[in-house]
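Supplementary Methods S3. Input chains for the assembly prediction are listed below.
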Amino acid sequence: MVISTRTLRFTIAVFIAGLPLFSFANPVSDTTKVQTEVSHAVADTTHAVAEASHEAHAEPTDAKSKIKAFINHHLLDSHDFVFSANEETGEHYGFSLPIILWDGGLQVFSSSKFNHGESVAENNGNYYVLHHEKIYKTDAAGTLKEGHGGHPENVKPLDLSITKSVVGILGIALLMFLLFTSLGKSFAKNGGISKGPGRIFEPLVLFVRDEIAIPNIGEKKYKKYMSYLLTIFFFILFLNILGLTPLGFNITGNIAITASLAILTYLITTLTANKNYWGHIFWMPGVPTPMKFILAPIELLGTFIKPFSLMIRLYANILAGHVVLMSIIALMFIFKSWIGSTLSFGLAFALSLLEILVAFLQAYIFTMLSALYFGMGNEEHHHDEAHH
Amino acid sequence: MEKLINDFSFGLFIWQVVIFVGLIFLLKKFAWKPILDAVNDREEGIKNALLSAENAKKEMQNLQASNERILQEARLERDTLLKEAREIKEKMIADAKEEAQTQGLRMIEQAKASIESEKNAAMAELKSHVSSLSLDIAEKLLKDELSNKDAQMKLVEKMLGDVKLN
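Predicted structure tokens for the full assembly:
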């Protein structure tokens, strides 16, 4: 029974590193293949739309491509809330969500009209079709014109639907509001000591203040950024954790979400930055004059790259976590042997624990880097002191 | 990159911004401000309590030290008092002794002087007595000489005997 933990760890590490390679080698090329197939089908028959959309998540016959389609489907936002679906009978267990479109006026209807992407929805004489979780305007027959790169060329109306992700965000926002207002009230009620469920998060609030805000921004100015830092930390953390539940949310792994968070960080940095910050961007002190002209565009570009890296980091980490975790869970069904399935169950379990760590880590990194950028925007004269 | 752009859902972006900004302001007013204020107050309270405890400890130490000092002083004073008393006692005894001695000596001196003077007086008296007595005897003898020789002799003898008796 004596197995060196190092060897064991090494074996597991190699296994984890190796698994995605053969189970999920080239998802991008494969999706495009599926999409082109779909588009061909669309061009051919009138009610091909239903089939095509169906094909995206249920039609492929072999287990591997079915799993790939399922994972790709999961990673996208969804216009209805489905807990599980029965492939054979075509039954979906879940509930519909409202569709809100801006197409020459507000168009509001239920997502049940799409019938999970299998039929053309009609509202006020306009016809819409759901293709890869995007809504396209179409005719009564539901034809989609094939465009370049496999995406249909049809008009996409502004989609303000309450999608699954919006439901998740609203739920988390409500949860945060109730949790932290109750925590805020409990201090006054209980003589300066917190009480209730919010109490668990009091150390995290203090952590954000003492380990993220104060060291990066400074004792004097950290207060005005605290609301944003605390909100963004708990928002990302809760959404990351929500993504690990079997409800199938993938919110922080959605580029629109991380982009909005990164843009807010960028806007706050830019709008609250002091003279010194701009001075360092456009007229870098302490370097020869020709260098200042070279550095200015680089520094300016740097201000955009910083929030961009924030956006990509969070998106990629969460997305990759979801892909790997789902692939390993799917391995259980591919192996179909007691030893392989047990092994991939163990792996999935270990990876879930790792994902919980990543959930905290990514929330921390996002908040920490935001605080760092705010601190940069508020830095006082340091370089000038060196010259005196 | 194309996949990223294609995945970007503008509607979700708008919802997210609206909800998130709203959440920031709501939480700022109803949660973060009271929480941070309460935590700050509590930390201030703890700091103050620690400081006052430290002060109380110092004060106590000062008090103890001053108590010790007072006790020490009292002890010293007692010692000096005792010492002084002892000295006074010894001095008094010595003084009394000396006084008594001088007094005694003086008294002896006086007694001696008075004895001397008494003796001198007595001697003077005796001398006068003896002289008068001798004169008397001489008178009587002379008288007897004049009358009777025998009788005079007898008388002298008798007189002498009387003197002896004296």
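DSSP finds twelve helices and eight strands in chain A. The mean pLDDT of chain A is 80.
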